[in-house]
Specification:
Bound molecules: zinc ion
Radius of gyration: 20 Å
Number of strands: 12
Structural class: alpha/beta
CATH architecture of one domain: 3-Layer(aba) Sandwich
Shape: elongated
Strand order of the largest sheet: 1-2-3
Helix content: 25-40%
Distance between the termini: 50 Å
Number of helices: 10
Strand content: 15-25%
CATH superfamily of one domain: HUPs
Largest sheet: 3 strands, parallel
């Protein structure tokens, strides 16, 4: 069991320690972690490809994790469809696929550890109440001593202090968690574990030391750094690339009806995704295998612009 750290004593020290840990050398272990809420679309293909290329260019491992923690949002067969699409594109992952739905006991044990150390509390505030606060939780239930379980969520108590990191694409990013987010949910009122807890638990368990993902998750990162500090886990290095935007300027997503990619024609898809990532394979390359090999050999993450969004229409 990890010894819990207390960043209250010196938040600055916690940050210096995180940054030192993020720079620690070691073989690159990266991952792609889709939610199986539908097939891959162009936006999620870019995420798969960027994380794949960054890992392979560093001669590292590329792991695959299914974030299947929300069954009502996951159509039957979606996870298998994603595996087939990745395979069709030639993006081969290392080792077995980790399904978060098999990790519930581990998440429960971590939650218990945090609770016993006094970092968590039960909260029965309604969603409407939290929304009325501008979604920054005000600590209302911190001292109420509600019993865990039942109809209560579990929240992690935030402390004064800044958590930040030097993103490989976006540069320095930091947040004062208590004022920007407030105490955040680790287990929802419906009993489902929250993304923040599961992703920190799994990155640590799989020894992931490099995370390449969309910028829509940038403002989740300080919460994850805080959890890592409390649990004594090393922080990975992070790289957040811009997301593809639809015509309304919103992130291309399954919720916004982005079209699934057709992995039966992989080469044009890979070329479009590479163009988005500012890499242009020569036209004389023949076949997806040659395009991927070229991309691994020529990968430079610093070509990706430090922006938050790029219109998808530029690539259609
Ligand atoms: Zn509450």
């Amino acid at each position: 069991m990890h010894r819990l750290q207390d960043p209250r004593r010196n938040p600055g020290e916690a940050i210096r320690r995180l940054n030192a840990q993020s720079r620690s050398p070691g073989r690159y272990i990266g991952r792609f972690a889709p939610s199986p809420t539908g097939p891959l679309h162009l936006g999620s293909l870019v995420a798969a490809l960027a994380s794949y290329l960054d890992a392979r260019a560093a001669d590292g491992s590329w792991l695959l994790r299914m974030e299947d923690l929300d069954p009502p949002r996951e159509p039957a067969g979606a996870a298998d469809t994603i595996l087939r699409q990745l395979d069709g594109l030639g993006l081969r992952w290392d080792g077995p696929v980790l399904y978060q739905s098999t990790r519930l006991e581990a998440y429960a044990a971590i939650l218990q550890e945090l609770r016993e150390a006094g970092h968590c509390f039960a909260c029965d505030c309604s969603r409407a109440r939290v929304r009325a606060l501008g979604s920054v939780y005000d600590g209302h239930c911190r001292g109420r001593g509600l019993p865990p379980g039942g109809d209560a969520a579990m929240r992690l108590r935030t402390r004064p202090g800044v958590f930040g990191m030097d993103d490989r694409i976006q540069g320095w990013f930091e947040q004062e968690l208590e004022s920007a987010v407030g105490d955040f949910v680790l287990r929802r009122r419906d009993g489902l574990f929250a993304y923040q807890l599961a992703v920190v638990a799994d990155d640590a368990m799989q020894q992931v030391n490099q995370v390449v993902r969309g910028v829509d998750l940038l403002d989740s990162t300080p919460r994850q750094l805080y959890l890592q500090a409390l649990l004594g886990y090393p922080a990975p290095r992070y790289a957040h690339f811009p997301v593809l935007l639809n015509a309304q300027g919103r992130k291309l997503s399954k919720q916004h009806f982005a079209a699934p990619v057709d992995a039966s024609a992989p080469e044009p898809l890979l070329r479009i995704a590479l163009e988005f990532l500012r890499h242009s394979p020569p036209t004389e390359l023949a076949g997806p295998g040659e395009v991927l090999d070229w991309a691994v050999a020529n990968w430079d993450i610093l070509r990706i612009p430090a922006r938050h969004g790029i219109p998808a229409s530029r690539f259609e």
